[in-house]
Amino acid sequence: MNKKVLLIEDDKIVRENTAEILELANYRVKTAENGKKGITLASSFLPDIIICDILMPVLDGYGVLQIISKNPKLKQIPFIFLTAKTHHDDLRKGMEFGADDYICKPFEESELLRAIESRIKRVEVFENKKQFEPEKLNSQTPIFKNIKNFDTFLKQKKVFKYKINETIYCEDNQSNFIFLIKKGAVKTYKINELGKEYITGYYKDKQYFGYLSFVKKMPHFENSKAITSTQLYKISKDEISAIINNNPHVIYNFIDLLAENLIGANEKCLLLAYDSVRKKTATTILDLLKKYPLKLDNELTISRSNLASSIGIAKETLIRTLSDFKEEKLIDITPKTIKVINKHKLQKIQ
């Protein structure tokens, strides 16, 4: 049977032209000229996918998505925004509401059809997987009950490999996993409107990352990249639920992670807001001595760009500050390393 598409679009010409494209591609299509009619039609038509404009009378696309996501009959239907709104904040807002994709007007016919086909195929794969899930879950439950740590569980997991500077995920990607580093080092970072990078964290062997977006069930709010050759485990929502349900003690590990992250974030906000450049630089260097993956004793192997991005200052400002610290015999520097000579005096910098 042909797949069903619901198209919600207030512009008559766009609505009719798009419907014609879909019908020629052998989809069964129903259309609505505003969000309110679209929701009513969705309940009776039960489409395989919904294509919806954002700016519409009566009820806009965001409102449509919010209502549909709360309806048990409709919330699993893939939802694609079809819109002329291309600002980053608009895209982010839509993804936070739970949209599966964005297609910006004007669009190519092939772009629209590829997006629809891709989303429908994902649902089909998920549904096929669900048919075998009870048997699979029952067979795994005894294993989960016997796990006292993750070692036994991880031996069954696929290892994902990333090269130096290879991206692991990008901001606004859907968060479907918690990442655990088997071996290597990773940084997380944000890019501001001027293209400047600000590093939000470093992670090394046996550390988790990507868990805040995962817990909040929202797209990633930052980017991540391997800073050495890295091997990762990806732990899915179903796996986390099964492990926690059968091993209640495991949840305390994640509570500790979230608490540590929150405390660190609050301290960093205070540092950035109120302290001098010298204080920011000294505190960050000392903090990295505890957390940074690439260190040996009191020596950090870190690029000036990454260090500047960690502190939140310009690279040129950092270089001047490091030179001052060297003259004061607080640190020793090479083009690729920073060695702390006098940790006590570095701690007292204001």
TrEMBL record:
Q: PTM 4-aspartylphosphate: list the residues.
A: 53
* One Pfam family per UniProt: Response_reg
Q: Look up the signal peptide feature and give its range.
A: none
| InterPro entries, per the entry | Bact_response_regulator (IPR050595), CheY-like_superfamily (IPR011006), cNMP-bd_dom (IPR000595), cNMP-bd_dom_sf (IPR018490), HTH_CRP (IPR012318), RmlC-like_jellyroll (IPR014710), Sig_transdc_resp-reg_receiver (IPR001789), WH-like_DNA-bd_sf (IPR036388)
* Residue span(s) of domain Cyclic nucleotide-binding: 162-261
Record keywords, A-Z: DNA-binding, Phosphoprotein, Transcription, Transcription regulation
HTH crp-type domain ranges (all copies) = 275-344
SMART domains reported in the protein's UniProt record? HTH_CRP, REC
Annotated Gene Ontology MF terms? DNA binding
State if Phosphoprotein is listed as a keyword: yes
**Which residues does the UniProt record annotate as the domain Response regulatory?**
4-120
Q: Name one GO biological process term.
A: phosphorelay signal transduction system
This one is known as CRP-like cAMP-binding protein
Task: Please report the organism this UniProt entry assigns to the protein.
Answer: Lutibacter oceani
